[in-house]
Specification:
This protein has 138 residues and is α+β, with helices and mostly antiparallel strands. 46% of the residues lie in helices and 14% in strands.
């Protein structure tokens, strides 16, 4: 009887804990994107333009005073590496993450919470090359 009761409790608790972990990752990813966006906006306010494009994973040296390289190198909460694209793709300019570790279900949860609930439109989009972008507005 005790084993059955414990089994029921575990069956109820595991999905809730899993959902809480996913919510924490989504919130951490949003914080990451917002902090990097704020750094880029501050740079834009000071210089009248965004820093130039860099290969993905490379910290834009112009952002040194606005977003430390060690934070850049840590990467997004969802995994992968950061990229900065001032004039690339349909979302211009944008912060992207490449080669992240999670499937699109987590990205969909992110989009549901912070954008238009569709990964192919809006200010947050997913591209087939494992590229997830967040539009920066100056």
């Amino acid at each position: 009887m005790v084993v059955v009761i414990l089994g029921i409790i575990v069956a109820i608790a595991i999905p809730r804990v899993s959902g809480a972990n996913q919510n924490a990752l989504v919130n951490a990813a949003a914080t990451d994107f917002r902090q990097l966006e704020l750094a880029l906006r501050m740079y834009h306010a000071d210089h009248g333009a965004f820093p130039p494009n860099q290969p993905y994973g490379d910290h834009p040296p112009e952002l040194k005073l606005y977003y430390p390289e060690d934070r850049w190198d840590t990467g997004p909460a969802l995994g992968g590496v950061w990229d900065w694209n001032p004039s690339y793709g349909p979302l211009q300019p944008n912060i992207s993450m490449f080669n992240f570790e999670h499937d699109t279900d987590l990205l969909q949860r992110f989009d549901d919470r912070f954008d238009d609930e569709r990964l192919t439109t809006g200010a947050v989009q997913y591209f087939e090359d494992r590229h997830f972008a967040w539009k920066v507005v100056p």
